C-alpha cells in the first residue's frame, strides 16, 4: 500500500508548491483590483468618457455618452448620501450654479432647473454634469440635495472659457433671484472689482457663496511650473473655498497650487450625467468638489433654516473630517449638535496637524486578511506534506525510490 501513500504525498507536495508560487502574486493582484475603484465608476473594466470643462476652439459640443455606470462611485459612498437623505434632501432650497449653463431637460433633474437664454444651452456639458452632483435624483447616482432646485447661470462663453464680467453678472442675478446657495464653479486668476462687490452683496442678502479653489487642471501640459496663487471669487472674504481630493484624502498630483482652502471634497473619478442622452461621464477637479459642497450646503440650509450664511459655512468646516485640509462630511454637517463655540458638542477641536482620513484603510485590512489566509494555507499544506513525506523517507533510509519499485526491493 506504499505506492498510494507515496502518490498522496506527491499530490500534497505539488499543492504546497502551487501555493508557494501563487503567494507572491495573489496579494498584489488583489490590491490592484481594489485600487481600480478609486478612479473608475465602481465597475471594474468599465470606461466612461471624460466630461471636459473647456472645449477646444474647433471641437464640437460634447457628444451624448453611450456608457452607463453600473454602481455608485466612491465619492457618493464617501459622502454617505444614502444616510444623509434620511435626514434631508435640500427641499425648498435654490442653488444657483455659475458654470457653462444647464440643460433644463437633462436626465435626473426632473424639471427642477430654471435656465433662461444662453444659460439653457450647455454645449460643453460641464454645468449639467455638476447640476447632477448637486441635485440629481437618479436612484443609483443621486446628487447631494435631490430635493433642491437649480438656477442655471453662465459664467463662461459657449466653449467654457471663464469670463469675469459674466461671473459677476451671474452672481448679481442669483442674488436678485433670492438664491439660497450660490456655487461659482469657475475660478479666475485675477481679482475683479465688480465680482468683489457682487459677492459682498450676495452675502449681505443672505446667500451662502461657495467657490472652486482653483480652475480645473489643464488638459495639456503639466502644472509643475504654475506658481501658487489665490483664485477668485474663492479668495473673497466669507466665500467657502473648496478643493478637490482623491479617495485617500490628498489633492491630485496635477492640482493647481493655491492657498486659503477651507474644505476638501471628492474631485476625481466622479460620475454624473450630461445635457444629452442618459449616459454617464467621469469628471474631476475643484469644480466637482465645489458642486458637492454646494449640495451639502443646500441640505444644511434646509435642515437649519435660521442659520446665517456664516453659520452654515462654519458648521460645514467644524463638522468636517479633521485633516490638513478639512474634508466635507455632509451627514455630520446636518446632524451634529454644535456647542456655543461652534464646535461639535462634547468634542474639543485641535489645532495640531492630524492624519488625513483615508477610506482605503478597509481595503488595506482586506489585503492583510488575504495575505494571512494564503500564508496559513501554505503552512498547513507544508505540515501535511511533511507528515506524509518524512516517514516514507525514513523507511527508505533517506534514499530516493527506484523507478518501478519500492526502496526495499
From TrEMBL:
It holds the Pfam family Peptidase_S8. Residues 34-53 are annotated as: Disordered. The active site is at 99 (charge relay system), 126 (charge relay system), 287 (charge relay system). InterPro entries: Peptidase_S8/S53_dom, Peptidase_S8/S53_dom_sf, Peptidase_S8_Asp-AS, Peptidase_S8_subtilisin-like, Peptidase_S8_subtilisin-rel. Keywords: Hydrolase, Membrane, Protease, Serine protease, Signal, Transmembrane, Transmembrane helix. PROSITE patterns: SUBTILASE, SUBTILASE_ASP. It comes from the Bacteria. Residues 90-330 form the Peptidase S8/S53 domain. The chain crosses the membrane at residues 369-390. Residues 1-29 form the signal peptide. Belongs to the peptidase S8 family. This is S8 family serine peptidase.
